[in-house]
Design goal:
globular, metal-binding, 4-stranded antiparallel sheet, single chain, 4 strands, 2 helices, alpha+beta, Copper chaperone CopZ, HMA_dom, 65 residues, Alpha-Beta Plaits
């Protein structure tokens, strides 16, 4: 599982937007979001760059932990 630090997440809508964005590119992706820690764990065939791009496209700042 790849871990990403994602700034700007604050609610369930944020979780849903990020999860849907990632699963749109990889329907089999497993996404775990920890709002308190501002972390997103992703188990997917997507590359790190693709995951960061998908999260960034939703309006959040993401980087590898």
């Amino acid at each position: 599982m790849q871990l990403f630090n994602v700034q700007g997440m604050s609610c369930g809508h944020c979780v849903k937007a990020i999860t849907q964005a990632l699963q749109a590119q990889d329907p089999a992706a497993s996404v775990r979001v920890d709002l308190a820690a501002k972390e997103v764990g992703v188990e997917s065939a997507l590359t790190v760059e693709q995951v960061i791009a998908a999260i960034t496209d939703e309006g959040y700042e993401a980087k590898v932990v």
